[in-house]
Amino acid sequence: MKDYRITVRLSAELHRQLKDAAHRSGTRESDIVRKAVERQLATEDERVTAYEHAKRAGLIGAVRGAPCDLSTNPRYFDGFGGS
Fold first, then answer.
1. What is the C-alpha separation between 5 and 74, in angstroms, rounded?
2. For each of the chain's 83 residues, which pLDDT tens digit applies?
3. What are the backbone angles phi and psi of residue 60, rounded to the nearest 5°?
4. Measuring CA to CA, which residue among 1, 4, 10 is closest to residue 29?
């Protein structure tokens, strides 16, 4: 398996915390970061709906003056797609 390298910028405080955690656990900083990324990706559901993607992106409720439930309330779809 080929390993890839990425660059990540951390605040001074976050870097200090990472260094301290690596020192306490007797491991490398990169191992801690790698495990954190693996945990994050393992918790994400691969079957995310289009609605969930739009909600995460802040697109739900983004139309000014529209009802806040415009995209989810079936009554707004009456006649939608009709000719």
1. 47
2. 799 999 999 999 999 999 999 999 999 999 999 999 988 887 776 677 888 888 888 887 677 888 888 878 898 888 888 76
3. -75, 125
4. 10
Q: With beta carbons less than 8 A apart as the criterion, state whether 70 and 76 touch.
A: yes
Please, are residues 39 and 32 in contact by the beta-carbon 8 Å criterion? no
* Domains of the chain, CATH where assigned: 1-64 (1.10.1220)
The residues, any chain, with a CB within 8 Å of residue 55's CB and separated by 6 or more, are none
- Cβ pair 21, 32 in contact under 8 A: yes
Which pLDDT score, from 0 to 100, does residue 22 have?
97
Cα–Cα distance measured from residue 53 to residue 63, given in angstroms and rounded to the nearest whole number: 17
